[in-house]
Design goal:
It is built from five helices and 13 strands. The chain is an alpha/beta fold and about 280 residues long.
């Protein structure tokens, strides 16, 4: 079997939110009405197209790649929010299908369950979407899983551990603290129980890209957090550490090269609003 050298990781599309990903042509809702995306959503969609059509082929060197959707592809019904395009979860799943299915067709694809507020308390919203996307099921048959362990390029290749959640901070001064801690805890837990530690651990949830490297016998270990695909919501303006931050969009590559493994990221932001002149 020809091994795959590349894993593309994306997360937090939040399809179904007025600030999440939506096709520029808009979508038809269950009742027959229409939702057309905002100008900013169309701008983010352009980044999304560039990511998949230009950046991914470049960094994978035109080789085959697998995909991991690392949680929160749908927005769900959460926190008494009114920013959803529709509270009908079937509508949200249809948006998710239009966004993700063209990107996953023909590729080995995995889905990791995200935040229960978005994915459902049992991950049921993501489970249905993951089956539609033909995601690879876990050992008990779930199409959306709580975590993913994957070794790129088979035996001896890069071992990656993916989860959605990671701790956050109210200050960017400590943004890397939880990311570093996540990798050290991976090492400690593996040593405690005689398991092989991951070379790369990837988390999401924050919508902000951060990367930490630590020296190891394999060269280095990497702990990295994905950016997301959601514009700032009203909720973000209330959170310390998020309210002043510009939104980030993009994804990651994990690659097992001929001599070593490494990661690459593509991250965009959107300029802040122009100041009022008085």
């Amino acid at each position: 079997m020809k091994r795959i050298n590349n894993l593309i990781v994306v997360s937090d599309e939040h399809c179904g939110c007025q600030f999440g990903l939506c096709p520029p042509k808009g979508i038809t809702l269950d009742g027959g009405g229409r939702y057309n995306p905002s100008d900013l959503q169309k701008k983010v969609w352009g980044m999304h197209d560039f990511f998949w059509d230009e950046w991914v082929p470049m960094v994978t060197k035109g080789e085959p790649y697998a995909i991991c959707i690392n949680g929160d592809p749908l927005d769900g019904r959460h926190h008494n929010s009114t920013t959803q395009v529709s509270h009908n979860l079937a509508d949200q799943r249809h948006i998710g299908e239009e966004v993700l299915l063209p990107r996953t067709e023909g590729h080995i694809t995995y889905m990791v369950r995200g935040t229960p507020a978005h994915s459902g308390e049992a991950g049921e919203n993501e489970e249905i979407l993951a089956e539609t996307l033909n995601c690879t099921p876990d050992s008990i048959g779930n199409y959306a899983r709580n975590e993913l362990w994957v070794r790129i390029h088979g035996e001896g290749g890069c071992l990656v551990h993916l989860l959605h959640h990671i701790g956050t901070t109210g200050s960017t001064h400590y943004e890397s603290s939880a990311v570093n801690k996540e990798l050290v805890e991976e090492f400690n837990e593996a040593a405690r129980w005689g398991e092989i530690p991951p070379d790369v651990c990837i988390r999401s949830h924050r919508h902000r890209h951060t990367k930490v490297e630590l020296d190891t016998h394999r060269g280095y270990g990497i702990s990295e957090v994905t950016p997301g695909w959601q514009l700032k919501t009203p909720f973000a303006y209330k959170i310390a550490g998020a309210r002043m931050a510009l939104p980030q969009f993009g994804g990651l590559l994990v690659r097992q090269g001929d001599e070593e493994f490494y990661t690459r990221s593509k991250v965009w932001s959107i300029s802040r609003n122009k100041p009022e002149e008085i």
